[in-house]
Amino acid sequence: METYMILLVVWWVLLGVLLTGIGAMVGMDMGVGTLLRYVGRTDSERRVALNVIGPHWDGNQVWFILGGGAIFAAWPLVYATAFSGFYIVMLLLLWSMILRPLGFEYRSKLPSPTWRAVWDVALFLSGLLPMVVFGAAIGNVLQGVPFHFDWRLTSFYTGSFLWLFNPFAILCGLMSVALAVYMGGSCLASGADDPIGSRARRAAIVGGLAAVVIFTVGGFWVSAIEGFKLVAGPDPGVAQTPLHQQVTRAPGALLANYAAHPALWVLPALVYAGLLLGALAHTIRRPILAWWLGTLAWIGVIGTVGAAMFPFIMPSSSNPSHSLTVWNSGSSLVTLTWMVGFVVIFMPLIVWYTSWAFWVMRGKVSVKHVETSDHAY
Amino acid sequence: MVNDLVVDLSRAQFAATALYHFLFVPLTLGLTVLLAVMETIYVTTGREIYKQMAQFWTRLLLINFALGVATGLTMEFQFGTNWSFYSSFVGDTFGAPLAIEGLMAFFLESTFIGLMVFGWDKMSKAQHLIVTYAVALGSNFSALWILVANSFMQHPQGAEFNPITMRMELQNFGALFFNSDAQSKFVHTVLAGYVTAAIFVCGISAWYMLKNRHLDLARRSFRVAAVFGMLGGAGVITLGDALGYVGAKVQPTKLAAMEALWTAEKAPMAFNAIAFPNQAEQKNYFTVQIPAMLSILVTHSLDGVVPAIDQLQVQAQERIRNGIPAVQAMEKLSANPRDEAALAQFKAHGKDVGYGFLVLRYAPQGDLTKITDADIARAARDTIPDVAIVFWSFRIMVAFGLLMLAYLVLATLMTLANQVERQRWFQWAALLMVPVPFLACEFGWLVAEVGRQPWTVNEMLPTWLSASTHSVAYMVFSLSGFILLYTAFAIVEIYLMLLFIRKGPEEHGAGPGAVEGLPSAGRKLAAQ
Fold first, then answer.
1. What is the ipTM of this complex?
2. Is B87 in contact with A377 (Cβ distance < 8 A)?
């Protein structure tokens, strides 16, 4: 029981790690897509931007795929409820994500300007939309989502599609776009020659400062949102379903964990520290350092949300007692144990060879390079 | 309670997106390995032509790979979006191989394919070769884990249904991984990918010979691919046979459907080479039989028998009757997990809980006490998959398989005798063979997955119960979106593929960004 409880918390932390990975790695590529037409004024300049992440976008995207797979394996009820509940939004996410591999691979295959312009738009949308959806999803989960279960745990989503774009969710969507612009800008500032690099640097600073403002607004807004409170239910660490607990709505509940454990304020502080120092790092031309500080800010954002919600993962606004928590929506002890084993073995390997790949491809991409290279997008 | 149309549309969407995805997968599986073979020859012999070959075929691989990745994203998310009950019911077990696939395979494949394409001038020859092997290994690992997951649906081994949490929970990871179905299916599928790539490379090489272009590259590519494909082809058929052997034990309804075996027979059983099955009347209209062949094929003996559909339906009726109290106990446990009497009732009947779900479909307002004998008979008939589709898909797959093996043996003999470049008819034949492996793969999946019906998890979870509770409008929207997008992608993909085949390898060196550029050999000379 004790072990199971610990494993659930470990997987809750790993869920945060995955979301941070998506923010840092996928978000970086999305930011490049969003900025494509701003940093690249000519076709060759846009190709420079694409070739900076050319060797890496595919590997980075796996963070997103792994996110889906790991939530499926470790939090099956969350995977089932969230993905089916957010159906149309998930499709928008999926369809825009699908355009990315094709955009990278096909855009520069033909010289026609129309062809390339169409793919540029596709790459822009496939950078912007997924980040809006990613942020909006987190915003909706924070507020609670209208769903309930029948006795077999079949989930029913009772909200409308448009409800998912409520003002708070849109604010969160903008937050994630701003962070993506910051990460993508930092990546291009490091990997692209001027003038692309300097435009990217300016965009990164703007994105980072915008994120600071949005985060502050969001923080005040959250204190006014009604949170959730677990009143009664089976003990943590006991195998259970979400059908046997009692949950109520409570004003200010999203700040309750912070009141109980003031040390948690370090998480939102990380967001400010990361982004403000990051802007500073950009002004002294240290884009790689700025990228790492952006990752720190992502840790802060995901950590802030997670700490505010714990033990909830996906509360239900229409039937709060069916809310999904860390205790009632995780996989069994055996599965979580095996999966921890695989993560412990493979994650360090992945980090090692990804770093190697970045190291091999280090250096700046220039207009001259994309115009003469054998191996460029 | 569940809208049948929503279930059908969800099935149509899954089938369409999965079959579409699998148009791109086998070529990636095989071509990455074939590229590793070509590059190994380059690195060990130092002959530039093999580097040119590797780079040319890499370009075609990438056009294909992009769509494989893109359509694969759909698959990763579609379980949750469209099969949410399935996802929460088996996520504990089925999700694990999917997550491991990400950790072990996708990262490897996707990180290194960037280096493989962009890193030719940034690494030593040996480093680049290792990178190419990593890509091939990654794509093959990915097939391994996804087939482990698929085999759980065919033969749910290693997990048990927990009536308290109301889902299938992993008990034994080894049993999940070493599922006999998974092991034969992995080798069968991966080798089918090798054959696909081999026939693709041979066909395009033959087209160059027909056009009298790039003869050195075409001749060598043809030879490497033909030998590679022949070895693969022999394996595909051996493992296909093993798969049938395994399937006979764990999915008797699929086997009976494959053979259109409606009524019980004594050993040695005859094989229906041709039949026109009628599902409603449960009989075949016209048959051409080969005596004793079925016993030999399936049981590898003359006195072996396999159960026929009439016998299987009788067994299903018994299991449905036994499954009803299991589902009723589950409902009580859902209200009160400490209900000891319900737990005991579940323990007594739990092995047939899936059959209880099957008949739940016909229960008025979900009330199983109102189930009649007619409902049970109807549910028992549901356990038989669509015989005509399974029967004919299987025969088409096998016929194509044998055709491909014969062709690859001939191709190997002819290339070793230096005859391919002299025989125009054979070059045409090689070109015409290109679509065959793709079709065979698709028909293979039809056998496997239509044959699995009416279950998503064999004998545990019926398809009708697995789908998400969407409205028809949502499903029409998503299915239309997929059809529109995927059709556009197919047109673009085929256009680019044909364009780059027509450009040929001499275009190599100009970079994909500049179709009008100089060939690399010319540029190198100019640089000197």
1. 0.90
2. no
